[in-house]
Amino acid sequence: MANDAKKISLHVSFEQTPQQEISLLGFLFYCDGRFLQAQPVRENLLEFTLGDAAGATNAPVNPSELRVFLAPATDKRIASVKSIEALEQYKPYEPLLTPSAEGNFSILPIPSLITQFWPFCSCRVTGKVSKWFFVDGIWEDRPVCKARVHICNIDAIWYWIYKIPDYIIAKVPEVILNPKEIIKFPIPQPDPPPFATSRAALEQTKSIFRTFSEEQRQMDAISALPELSADIRQTLASGNLNRIRETIAANYAIFHPWFCLWPWWWPWFYHRRELAVVYTDAAGRFDKQVSYWCTGDKPDIYIWVEYLIGGVWTTVYEPPIPCHTFWDYACGSPINIHITDPRVAGGCCCDCPIPGDEVWVRAVGSTSISHINQASYTQAPPGQSVAYNRIGLTDAAAIYDPSFLPTAVGDFKRPFGGSPTFIVGFGNNLPNNGVYYYRWSYKKVKDAGLINVIDSYKPLQPSAGITSKGYEFTYVDSHGDTQFGSNTVKLGPFTIGANDNLYIIPTERPDMAPFSVPEANPQWTEPSYRNYSITFNSDDLKDASNMKGDGLYEFKLELFDKTGALLTNIPKTTFKVPEYSNAGFSVNAPDALLDLPSPLSTVTSGFNILIRVDNSACSADIYTVLVNHTSSSPDCCGFVSYKPGGVEQPLDLTFQAAHPNNFAVFEFLVERGTCGYVDIAGASGMVIDSADGYILGGGGVYDKSFTPAQLLGTCYNSGVGKGAFAETLSVAAMATDGTYRLTAKDNGDVAAFALEP
Fold first, then answer.
1. Residue 559: what are its φ and ψ, rounded to 5°?
2. Are residues 304 and 217 in the same domain?
3. SS3 of 228, please?
4. Least confident stretch, 183-192, 278-287, 299-308
5. Is residue 465 part of a domain?
6. What's the rounded Cα separation, in Å, for the pair 177 and 174?
7. What is the pLDDT of residues 719-754, one digit of tens each?
8. Tell me: the pLDDT tens digits for 129-152?
9. Same domain membership, residue 591 and residue 663
10. pTM (2 decimals)?
11. For residue 659, what are the domain limits?
């Protein structure tokens, strides 16, 4: 082990010989963290040749200026490490360089406390990623395909416990033994169908009048945590940081629920190491054989998930580590992950192409094209009497529908708004010279009051300026491992020949002409049989006078050949739509959805559909209680007398629930103290008509009269009682973008009053 200015040679040994041979890699850094080089350990010898990289001359090497690390080389990714921070996840051993009397360097044997963490074991991690979706009036737990699943192992606390700073360890007894504040971290849970707030659920929530002291809240939160034994509490109270460390590590499972409440602890007590990255298949499944540190009988598996949104891999599931790690994971047991992120799409199919030259106009977002009414007829809402025209409306439900917006098949009642997406499937023989491009156009047919409008077709503009189609591909990294990447191609708009705003019909695969992407194994993120043909902002739609506004619009899908010429003699059987009762099957598009030159024609020049658009916002207001049909003037204490002058008077509750085009529903609730809801005072319905005894007047104002006894109930006390009331009004817009209800257009109000004689 000569002390050479150009070379450092170190004999590597173990304090206790490992049960299995471990390949080691040595890393050399300057004391300031600059990386010098990495070398394998061969026949128990680690050699670093410094040369110019270390700035070495013939002067002796000062060991105090260098840092050496040893780590297992089982994971090939370690070869790319260039920093001490990146090396930490591989549990390195840092020996001291000790100069000997002969001018040599030596290091002590690797401690068994370190090597116990180095052996690798194998484990099969399998599971499924899914999400609740509303499909054809039914909530379904559907698989999420092509999600990127990160499989991680949470390293044993015994390895990290001595690296946690003293001031962090000292906080543990302070927070656990004398909690001053319990942080309620929002833990994501699967959305229970039907994703709506029900009256029963609302009644289980805290009453507006039922409050608790801060001390009581702390006691309730702490009572839900696991009890700590007297020995653990005594150790925590001892102030001996080493004993506290050992107690935390020895009772790690007990402390998880405590640690879950304080997020600032997580980086210190939970170190996750990524074992693998996999992609879910058409059934939402993932399955991977991984290696993990054999520090215990079983690995501790933690999973987080990404999804490709707008061409960018976006985290959609990353819950708190302490509460969502599969501790002592039983290898091979299924791990089921429920995604709740509203941006995650559903519906997977590995090999479901549309044959030939067919064009399947499938949906607006998640709403089947066949569930958009094309006929003009008037019908009143269920339980109400004012009828309205149902043309261009859908009977589909939407995510974030409240419980007071029920849906039923055939009850076409809601318009579209926001930024809808037309989803169109193209046959696997497309594009070809005969059918190469498509174009969406629109014109306004009627205004918001369904009065005829003179307009002509205009190109439908994509909300992002262009329409792109994403794809994924594989590549081999510098370590020889297969990795995944993503990219996009432009579908349009293009000007071809005499026509503009044309879009290329996507090929079955990205590596086919005209795209011919160069990457290996490319696959569309949205397959061509379910292509996102265009997403547009419905608030930008205009009429012939360039005026924006709500109303009935006609949208047209046209096809063009490779020269950009419009096709006008397309066999009408080319266009398909979903079957009404099962959107997974297609039928020939009915004549009502085709642009036919004559009633008996067998050819068409395009596909047409009428859609009602409404982006208006709701209004909501709760008014002062009326006494004897006159506005009351409660004093600053908030009391309203129901016996002015000693004579009991009727009481009116009034509120406004309105929408410019009546496409909204409302729910009005009255709560009496902690006694519960006053059912006779509640109401719900569509804002187009009176509901539940409330009479609709001008400006969307609802009014209903009550006797004091009806409102006070058990608090009436023969006309001498008092009562406090809370009024809650929710007005929800009915418009949908095809998947999500436009909640930004909602409104609501809350008010309170108290009655006294």
1. -120, 150
2. no
3. coil
4. 183-192
5. no
6. 6
7. 999 999 999 999 999 999 998 999 999 999 999 999
8. 998 876 555 677 888 888 899 999
9. no
10. 0.70
11. 619-756
